[in-house]
Amino acid sequence: xxxxxxxxxxxxxxxxxxxxxxxGGAQQPPSDFEEWLRRLQEGLRGLTPGGxxxxxxxxxxxxxxxxxxxxxxxLVAWFALGSFYTVQPNEVGLNLVFGRYTGKTAAGLxxxxxxxxxxxxxxxxxxxxxxxxxxxxxxxxxxxxxESQMLTGDQNIVNVHSRVIWQIDPAHPEDFxxxxxxxxxxxxxxxxxxxREVVGLKTIDGVLTTDRTSMExxxxxxxxxxxxDYHAGVMVLQVQLQSxxxxxxxxxxxRDLTAAPQDKQRAINDAYSYANxxxxxxxxxxxxxxxxxxxxxxxxxxxxxxxxxxxNYISAQYxxxxxxxxxxxxxxTMERVLGGMSKTILDAPGAxxxxxxxxxxxxxxxxxxxxx
Length: 372
Hints:
By secondary structure, this protein is of the alpha+beta class. The chain has 4 domains: 1-8 and 30-47 and 62-82, no CATH class; 84-123, no CATH class; 129-246, 2-Layer Sandwich (Tetrahydropterin Synthase, Chain A), CATH 3.30.479.30; 254-324. 47% of the residues lie in helices and 19% in strands. The protein is built from 9 helices and 13 strands. Strands 6, 9, 10 and 11 form a 4-stranded antiparallel β-sheet that branches. Strands 3-2-5 form a 3-stranded antiparallel β-sheet. α5 packs across α7 (212-230) and α8 packs across α9. The chain is rod-shaped. The N and C termini lie far apart (169 Å).
């Protein structure tokens, strides 16, 4: 298997060099890799028995040459086996040569210089990470006051528990690995800082009620902006406000404060309800009084008109027959006045003493229900 430049080799016919002839018979200069390969082959020929130039068939290799051969085989095996590595589907590989970042690789079988020349850092870019602010689920959701207590824009204190869901940016995993010393602590610090900023822009009523839905995307947007400025290689997926409450020491007072507007509204509603009940009744009573007054007015006017007409009629008759009319009026008046009496005394002119007039009906009272 040995060959030399004079007798031909495995890649050429006699009369040609190991890299062949160029156009017009000129020899092409070998590349660096081909020159290294040629030297390696010449070294291997010198190590094998009978491989030396002009060596006899019965010559043997020395122990030093055997050791060198073993070392070369180990070197080739080290290079062949240590250059290949596998990246999982949820990972991105970062290639380093002598500690310097040279590029990233996608999922699958990839190559790099073997250790210790080259190293590979596999980053799980598609795994979602969770950062908790203000509490810790590992301790049963216990409150961490140093993180949870925040000041609102109207100078009130609230306890805020939030959770940030994030992942490593697949486009810039090298930023996550090399730019930030402790990326997870950085994400937590940024989340706490931005949450305090957003809470400081709201009132306590808004934070506890209507503004919670708008705070979550606002915190996410601000966090992403800060992390991009840091070149942290982090992608914020979602921010969730787990709970927003007032401190336990003032819960009762705050409940009273919260209940005060409700009590006020309830009192107003009760007043409106009472007014809606009383006002119609009062209007009905007033309308009834007015109707009664109108009826009394009409009745009185009609009675007066009737009396007037009766008087006018009697007056006309009186003028026609004064004596008869006067006598009739006297008798009708006496009948109306004395008709209900049981004893009558007439004081006629010239009569002395007065003559009693006894009614024919008995003076004793009749039993109840008896006919008259």
